[in-house]
């Protein structure tokens, strides 16, 4: 410490540069006692990851924290990240059956899924006194939809892309209804049996109040923001306009 102080004073006299003299003094301290640096680094990482966790940010490792400043693109999911993740049923369009029959099939099928959109339909059925049974042979197809048997009959639920893959016939009237819901920023969930569509249930999820400000802050930092969603492009673009996102990848 004495040598460090002497070096600081000498260099202040020679160069009259406080920053340079301080660098010299600190360098002598670190070289003579490297354990200070060895202790400071893990403590700083521990405090940093702890503060992140308090704010809902999970940091994988010290290396991830160290390289975070190099980030130039941030990719976000839509449901529950940009939006509140508490969607509600807004519209029901049944085809060839009553709304309650469609809701019974939809609710029973969606019971097997943990997705917030599924939860919205199940909750709607409960609130409207519709008794649901148990789905059999349930399967989730990521980014597409779900399938399962309700009362021994096979049913499917998902987006237009999923229906096209299943080769389910989509009437123009059904496509028009789905497009109308999408343009209004709603997510249309299409329900079908093995050969035809039986109806559409539209679900809307409200954008978080903080999303627009957060995305603006990313842009101010020079970071490109990309939104990833299983929704179709029309719905995705409606959300994009609300929050000012640069790029959207829909239907995934």
Task: Give an account of the 3D structure.
- With 252 residues, the chain is of the alpha+beta class.
- It is 49% helix and 21% strand.
- The protein contains eleven helices and nine strands.
- It has helices at 2-15, 18-32, 35-54, 62-67, 78-82, 99-110, 116-127, 160-165, 172-183, 211-220, 233-243, and strands at 73-77, 88-94, 136-141, 145-150, 153-158, 187-192, 197-204, 224-228, 247-249.
- The strands form two sheets. Strands 2-7-6-5-4-3 form a six-stranded antiparallel β-sheet. Strands 1-8-9 form a three-stranded parallel β-sheet.
- α9 (172-183) packs parallel to α11.
- The protein is elongated, with a radius of gyration of 28 Å.
- The N and C termini lie far apart (61 Å).
């Amino acid at each position: 410490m004495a040598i460090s102080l002497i070096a600081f004073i000498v260099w202040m006299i020679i160069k009259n540069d406080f920053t340079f003299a301080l660098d010299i003094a600190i360098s002598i301290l670190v070289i003579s006692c490297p354990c200070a640096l060895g202790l400071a680094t893990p403590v700083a990482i521990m405090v940093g990851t702890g503060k992140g966790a308090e704010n809902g940010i999970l940091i994988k490792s010290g290396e991830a924290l160290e390289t975070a400043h190099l980030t130039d693109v941030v990719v976000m999911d839509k449901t529950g990240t940009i939006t509140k993740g508490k969607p509600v049923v807004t519209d029901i369009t049944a085809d060839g059956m009553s709304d309650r029959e469609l809701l019974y099939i939809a609710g029973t099928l969606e019971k097997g899924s943990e997705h917030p959109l599924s939860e919205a339909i199940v909750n709607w059925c409960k609130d409207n006194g519709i008794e649901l049974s148990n789905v059999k042979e349930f399967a989730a197809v990521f980014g597409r939809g779900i399938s399962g048997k309700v009362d021994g009959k096979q049913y499917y639920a998902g987006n237009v892309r999923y229906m096209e893959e299943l080769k389910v016939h989509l009437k123009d009237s059904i496509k028009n209804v789905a497009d109308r819901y999408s343009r209004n920023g709603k997510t249309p969930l299409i329900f079908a049996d093995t050969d035809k569509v039986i109806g559409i249930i539209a679900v809307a999820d409200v954008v978080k109040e903080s999303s627009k400000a957060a995305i603006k802050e990313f842009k101010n930092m020079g970071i490109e923001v990309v939104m990833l969603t299983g929704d179709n492009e029309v719905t995705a673009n409606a959300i994009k306009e609300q929050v000012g996102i640069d790029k959207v990848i829909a239907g995934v």
